[in-house]
Amino acid sequence: MDSFHSHPYYPPDAQIYNYSPNTATVLSLLLTASAGTTALLGATYILTIWARPNLSKANRFAVLWFVLSGTLHCFFEGYFIVNHTRMASAQDFFGQLWKEYALSDSRYLTSDTLVLCMETITVLVWGPMCFGVAYSILSNHSLRHPLQIIVCMAHLYGDTLYYSTSLFDDYARGRPYCRPESVYFWIYYFLMNFIWIVIPFCKLSPHDCIIGLLLKCPLVYLYQSMKTVSHALKQFDSDSHSRKSK
């Protein structure tokens, strides 16, 4: 029978069974995760140079972003949906990362229905579609912008739902899922999810050295795709009217 142990998560009465503290330090987890992310982005960058040497910097960055998103969705979040019932006692790398993150949202250790359903959709649908967007950019496929609109809207909707449900339970029901220390709310909970809405991207060149900092984010990608699709539809309508007039 599963046993209930004391734990550092909020709310203190959260039913987290078979909890065991992480054996790895936070620093070692962050260094390992950073090394893996660097290797992934480095390999992806080399692939973009090999596949399309003339790809613009903006599109090259977009490929890196969507590959990183797809990898996190399919593998890191995929680990969660497969192992959510045993996360509290897990001592493998992903398990310990999730336990560290759960200090900002204990729902990940209690098999919360909303989080589990939302993450399942993310793993099975949005993750693969992120890879699809990356491939469509590399191959200059016509589906790039329709797919990009769907994925960006999914990220915006998912983040909004994630934030709102947690904050509602905290402020309206007095049931917080995040520890009271600022680092867990502002860095873990807020920032680590907010980057899927806004991603700062510095691009310096002789033509824009005065501006220096450009904002590239899902909102920008969404606007970019909607503008491209709108232009294509207008062009199609214009061509149709021209053919009818003849």
TrEMBL record:
Membrane topology: Multi-pass membrane protein
Pfam families: EBP
Chain segments annotated as transmembrane: 26-50, 62-82, 113-138, 183-201
Subcellular localization: Membrane
InterPro entries in alphabetical order: EBP, EXPERA
Keyword Transmembrane helix attached: yes
Domain EXPERA: 58-204
Keywords tagged on the record: Isomerase, Lipid biosynthesis, Lipid metabolism, Membrane, Steroid biosynthesis, Steroid metabolism, Sterol biosynthesis, Sterol metabolism, Transmembrane, Transmembrane helix
The family this protein is said to belong to: Belongs to the EBP family.
Protein name as it appears in the record: Emopamil binding protein-domain-containing protein
Originating species: Aspergillus lucknowensis
